[in-house]
Amino acid sequence: MPGYRELARDGEFRALFVAHVVSVAGDQFARVALTVHVYNRTASAGLTAMTYALTFLPDLVGGPLLSGLADRFARKEVMVAADLVRAALLLVMALPLMPLWALAALLVLVQFAGAPHGAARAALLPQILPDERYPLGQAVLSTVTQAAQVAGFLTGGALVAWLGPGLVLVADSATFVVSAFALGVFLLDRPAPQRPHVRAWPADLVGGARLVWRDRRLRALVALACVSGFYIVGEALAVPYAAQLGAGPAGVGSIFAAYAAGAAAGMLLVAHLTARTQLRVMPWLAIAACAVLVPAALRPGLVISVGLFALSGAASSYHLVANTTFVRAVPDFSRGQAFGLAVTALRVSQGVGVALAGLAAETLAVHHVVAAAGALGVLAAGGAAIVWWLSDASPSAGASPSDAASRSDERDGRQRRYG
Length: 419
Description:
- This protein is an all-alpha fold.
- Helix content is 81%, strand content 0%.
């Protein structure tokens, strides 16, 4: 497989890489700044938590509603426009004495603008890397996302203490300007995706959902992605889990770091496997990501627990294979909408998993909740794996991401010819 040096030589990928890193880090700046800002003004833990939740909730609506823009317009233009919109909104949020309701409304709009940007980036990457470099490029972007989130949170806290929340929001706005500049200057101009026929927005939404639902391969991939709603429980309950072990804040940081480090290492390893091997191990990794949490029922110490969480994070690297296979299997003219729907399903599963785990932890020991989530996740992942193995894209059928892409291109061509 090509190495990282070949990716570094690609000017378009470098631009996408830089834009992604600075915007992800900037998002964490904003999350820290807003939560500190709200708590300083209200002294309310509830309102502070609600503000943090608002940075995630719009994905549930923005995914299906706005991702289709990446299929209607040139994807470079969609990404640049989304970055500039977010930059402008963040500058408004940085104005002094901004009412809390206005901050919340602007924050929702910022998150809405991120939905078409993410869908356009996912749909554009296979065009920038149309060969076997695509899985490696996706692995690099996914890995730096983990690293940028951690670095952004750590740096964001220091920046808020030094500059104050308002100036940190300005800094976040600047990251989106940098992203827009990098994308606008260094990405090639490509036309909007060729569509077999132009449909109204509601028809596009329904068509994208029908495309995913009717294709067993795509349904299986979405189901495998939704398994994250089970193993994410360990990360979501990191604070009470560490407290149960008497580990304190250092233990919480170790748990979060274990997940992130494990995921980053796992994705880099998986990216170097052959396409056939990736497809073969993908369902087993989904099962393993949950299974390694079951021993938490024995209430192991912090060191063993951190090791279990790191293994779960490493096994979660199957998302890299599911992501690349899903994007390649969807016709280009529907990639943005289909990707947005898949992300929405992922977010819903994670939100429901975290909410149910939180309720269970009110009455049960935290380590039992984590272990139970792992056991239920094994069952869910096993069911999704069976659907995958029965699908046309299963390893036993000899399919690969490249084969799926070829079939999608052929199907796309037939639809354009015959309407």
